[in-house]
Design brief:
The chain is of the alpha/beta class. It has three domains: 173 residues, Thiolase/Chalcone synthase (Peroxisomal Thiolase, Chain A, domain 1); 123 residues, Thiolase/Chalcone synthase (Peroxisomal Thiolase, Chain A, domain 1, 3-Layer(aba) Sandwich); 38 residues, no CATH class. A five-stranded mixed sheet has the order 1-7-6-4-5, with helices on both faces. A four-stranded mixed sheet has the order 8-13-12-11, sandwiched between helices. The protein has a two-stranded antiparallel ribbon with strand order 2-3. A hairpin with a 3-residue loop joins strand 12 and strand 13. Helix 3 crosses helix 4. The longest helix is centred in the C-terminal third of the chain and has 22 residues. It is globular. Bound molecules: acetyl coenzyme *A. The site of acetyl coenzyme *A has 25 residues, from helix 2, helix 6, helix 8, helix 9 and strand 12.
Length: 351
């Protein structure tokens, strides 16, 4: 049977380090508040107007390709996960293809817009393509440049302090080695709370969920009023988060979807060699660790250094762990994520 294996992995984070003290210069916050609630000490911000999710992804992808022993032009499909794309459209997949100079005519590219669980969804999509025999070298990327779209005033402090920029990439290839590679993936969604963790403008919602009916203006006039009320006044072009709801739901869904994956392959938490959770918040990761009764050396967290890099957080953390020798041949690695949508998912990999 053919499975997919991670043949190469790479990550890139921008040089500029932004500490909690730096944020205190522009908004009313404190190092103590941020560390106590999220565990974050510092994060990286890309160079504005020079670096983008695509350029950062290209840096990570080149490392992943080199480690997989292939040239970028040997990639036959790109799956690109981001919530902070270079453009509204086209997606980052084609921009990355161009950045990497891939011109052969078998090439395909898609973007996955599943925010924090974007990398797990992307990995699962790529896994199906490999198993079906459709592609041989798939580049799966998560990349975010949050620093271009956060509200750095005190109004946006509950969200702005949490996020950072960066990119991670893996090359997926088929393997026939018995019991190796991606063993199982599990994807879930529930749109009930879509607006509780969202950035809703620009969009074609036309005020739905924002009390459009209360205005009672003709459509023609409504457009301008809507733009003013919601874009300018309510700043709906910044992310909005109901932090407590996200926290409560995340600490339930993370263990649930990890157990679902373990049950599928007849294993239990003690079989996990390394859990790499989406780096949403150190408190969430610690809660999950406690629920699954995993010792410290079986969970990899790096949110302290990079903040929450959304779709990039899992491949960055996985790559860092691998570079530090924490992922060895034969290890059972568990990846899991929860985020906006709500969407959540898990993957079990025998390295
Ligand atoms: N600095 C200082 N004070 C702040 C900040 C800040 N950066 N942000 C909010 N506050 C204040 C609030 O204004 C509020 O003040 P008030 O009591 O005077 O009204 C007070 O702190 C408490 O605010 P809450 O929002 O109730 O704070 P809470 O204890 O819930 O912590 C947090 C907020 C950290 C976001 C928490 O809800 C949480 O961890 N949620 C999980 C969400 C998460 O991790 N999201 C990551 C992105 S989504 C994902 O990846 C899944």
């Amino acid at each position: 049977m053919v499975n997919s294996k991670i043949a190469g992995i790479g990550f890139y984070v921008p040089e500029q380090v932004v500490t909690n003290a730096d944020l205190m210069k522009v908004m009313d916050t404190s190092d103590e508040w941020i560390q106590e609630r999220s565990g974050i000490k510092e994060r990286r911000y890309g160079k504005k107007h020079e670096e983008t999710p695509t350029t950062m992804a290209a840096n990570a992808a080149k490392i992943a390709c080199e480690r997989a022993g292939i040239k970028p032009e040997e990639i036959d499909f790109i799956v690109f996960a981001t919530l902070s794309p270079d453009y509204y459209f086209p997606g980052c997949g084609v921009l990355l293809q161009r950045e990497l100079g891939i011109t052969h005519k078998e090439m395909g590219a898609i973007d996955i817009r599943n925010q924090c669980s974007g990398f797990i969804y992307s990995l699962s999509v790529a896994d199906q393509f490999i198993k079906s025999g459709m592609y041989k070298n798939i580049l799966v990327v998560g990349s975010e440049m949050h620093s271009m779209g956060l509200d750095f005033t005190t109004r946006g402090r509950n969200v702005a302090v949490l996020f950072g920029d960066g990119a991670g990439a893996v090359v997926l290839q088929p393997t026939t080695e018995e019991g190796k590679g991606i063993l199982t993936t599990h994807l879930h969604s529930d749109g009930t709370y879509a607006e509780e963790l969202a950035l809703i403008s620009p969009g074609s919602h036309g005020g739905k969920h924002l009390g459009k009916e209360q205005f009672g203006f003709p459509e023609a006039l409504y457009g301008e009023i809507f733009v003013y009320e919601n874009l300018i006044e309510n700043k709906t072009y910044y992310p909005n988060m109901n932090g407590q709801l996200v926290f409560k739901t995340a600490v339930t869904k993370f263990p649930e979807v990890i157990m679902e994956a373990l049950n599928k392959v007849g294993m239990t938490p003690v079989d996990i060699d390394l859990l790499v959770p989406h780096q949403a918040n150190l408190r969430i990761a610690q809660f999950v660790q406690k629920t699954l009764r995993l010792p410290d050396d079986k969970v990899y967290n790096n949110i302290m250094k990079y903040g929450n890099t959304t779709a990039a957080s899992i491949p960055i953390a996985l790559c860092e762990a691998w570079e530090a020798g924490k992922v060895k041949d034969g290890d059972l690695v568990c990846l899991a994520a929860f985020g906006s949508g709500f969407t959540w998912g898990s993957a079990l990999i025998r390295w």
